[in-house]
Design goal:
The chain is an all-beta fold. About 0% of the residues lie in helices and about 40% in strands. Strand 3 and strand 4 form a beta hairpin. The structure holds FE2/S2 (inorganic) cluster.
Length: about 110
C-alpha cells in the first residue's frame, strides 16, 4: 500500500495530536498525527508500547509526546521511549504533505537500526 490521506494540515495545531485510523495491509492501524512545537508533522503509532493506550491523548512537548497513563515520553522522530516505564519503541511512519493533505504510509514504518 502507498501513502494515504490521513487528515488536512489545518486539523493539527502546533504541540497537538490527532488520532486517525488508516488501512494497512494487515488491517486497521491507529496513528497519531502530531505537529511538534516547531510546526513539523509526524506520524507515530497511537498505541503506547507499555499499556496500549492512545498516545494522541498525551501532551506534546517539543519533539516528544508523553503517554498520559504512566508518563513515558516517546521521540516523535524515532518512536524511541526516553523515560520509563515504556522500554520498547513505537512505530513511526513516513509522512508527507500534498497541498493541504497529510499523507501517511502505514505499511512502510521508518527504521532506525
Ligand atoms: S501505558 Fe503508556 S507508559 Fe504506561
Amino acid at each position: 500500500m502507498t501513502a494515504q490521506h490521513a487528515c488536512m494540515t489545518t486539523d493539527v495545531q502546533p504541540s497537538s495530536a490527532l488520532r486517525v485510523e488508516l488501512e494497512g495491509a494487515s488491517g486497521p492501524v491507529e496513528v497519531a498525527i502530531v505537529r511538534d512545537a516547531d510546526g513539523e508533522l509526524h506520524a507515530i503509532s497511537d498505541v503506547c508500547s507499555h499499556g496500549a493506550v492512545p498516545l494522541s491523548e498525551g501532551e506534546v512537548d517539543g519533539c516528544f509526546i508523553e503517554c498520559w497513563l504512566h508518563g513515558s515520553t516517546f521521540d516523535l522522530r524515532t518512536g524511541q521511549p526516553n523515560q520509563l516505564p515504556a522500554v520498547r519503541p513505537v512505530p513511526v511512519y513516513p509522512v508527507s504533505v500534498d497541498g493541504e493533505r497529510v499523507l501517511v504510509d502505514v505499511d512502510a514504518p521508518l527504521s532506525f537500526s
